[in-house]
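TOPIC: backbone geometry
CONTENTS: sequence, structure tokens:
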Amino acid sequence: MDPFATLGIDRTFDIDFPAVERTHRELSRALHPDKHVTGGASERRYALSKAIEVNEAWRTLRDPIRRAEALFTLRGIAVGESNEPKPSAALLMDMMDQRENLAEARARHDVRVIRALASEIEARARGAERALSEGFRAAEPASTDRAALEQLLPRLGELRFYRRFLDEVSEGLDLATVAAGE
């Protein structure tokens, strides 16, 4: 499935979220099963399958990791952690240090430190997203230079690490906030 085609937008990393959200809502309304109750079984099935496709396209495009994966896939580049280059040793060591800091802050229920760690990694994640945006923009329209696109893959891997860390921070923040009585 091409989520960009499903929602009728250009294949680009930078998307106009309010416009795409409006399109999603309009399509969802038009394809809602209640609108097709009087139609035949095949019409209802078709509307339901299209509604599912529209919702999946919206979920994909909202998420920068899934959006980048879709762009790579549509350009014939396999993605997924088993297909992408291994992260640098420096990134691995840094993330290991950050996770240790997070574990210590969680053990102390130190919400301030947990939030500071989150803020730092959020900034790095935004930087990785900017790098992906710039790289895809430089490769548009639909570059045939596979090597240039493949050079963006480490940024996608980096963004995955940051997202996992932020998920852990979110869990840690929930636990620390409850323990601290906030």
